[in-house]
Amino acid sequence: MKKRTLFIIMALIMLISACAKPVVAPTAFELLDLGEKYLLELNYEQALVQFLAVIDVEPMKPRGYTGAAEAYFGLGDMDAAKIILEQGQAEIGGDESIQNMLDEIYREEEARRQAEMATEEARRQAEELADYIVEWVDTEFERMIRIGLNKPSGDIWRSELDGVFSIAILGSTHCFINDEGYDWSYRHITLAGDENYGLSAFYGIGAHDDGSVNEEYTGKGSVSSLADIVNFTNIDSLAVIANQLSDLSPLLELPNPDDIYCTFFANNIADTAMLNRYCDETINEQFVEIGDSLPTQEYTEE
User: Are residues 171 and 293 part of one domain?
Assistant: First the structure.
């Protein structure tokens, strides 16, 4: 019985000794072999683990750094690749394989920097091209805009018009930019007989709550084209009252042609579709003259 017990104890001791045997760490060669294997398999995460382990085991082995850099390339992290290579050059000093990879990174960084500079220069040139001295098509439209801008002479740059959001051109006398707090009205009618109302004024300035105005105007202006409206890229409200417009198609050239509301009373516009698209006026309210009969309705204030 004693012999059997002794045998069991010795067996246990041998088993414990076997279990306590230290695990041998992989060599740098084995780690490199695994790293290369994972690179070929495009398993960049595991390849990186192996090459970083090589650096820990043998920091003077260049392939640890270049292999880690290749893994970083595969992971899309060029900055980390550059850092690990620079670390290798600092540790080893003057290794050709590391320097070649660093030079490639430096060339790519320079190419990227040059591309960014070219893009910025292209953007700057595009901005310069976007700004220009406006060459007006309709000189009367220009004159009215200058009234609204209070700029009777001198060049007008397109960028000066970026802050124009609304324009109201009234005959040949008034132009209001961005409203500026002025009260005006249009389509003034008076009783001309039994249930007959005639147009007494195209527009008035200084509207009051009772419907009266300080001044009424019966003359028309000479604005005949909206071609210059393309220079007003931020405009969202346009009124041209008592002028000679016949074509609204330039409005379609604006950046957001459906985001502008218009008023065109007493012009020469015969395109019903365009009138319906941009304003409330009808063809019957286009070709009108002072004294013409109009349906009864309150004058419109702006």
Answer: yes
Which residue in this structure is represented by tokens 């088993």? 15
Residue scoring higher pLDDT (13 or 256): 256
Q: Which of 274, 290, 207 is nearest to 282 (CA)?
A: 274
Residues 6 or more apart whose CB falls under 8 angstroms from that of 191 comprise 197
Domain membership flag for residue 134? no
Q: Determine contact, residues 66/86, Cβ cutoff 8 Å.
A: no
- Is pTM beyond 0.70? Reply is no
Pick the most confident of 117-126, 191-200, 222-231, 267-276: 222-231
Give the residue numbers spanning the domain of 287: 139-301
Same domain, 147 and 244: yes
Say which residues have a Cβ less than 8 Å from residue 297's Cβ, sequence separation at least 6: 187, 189
Contact 294, 200 (CB under 8 A): no
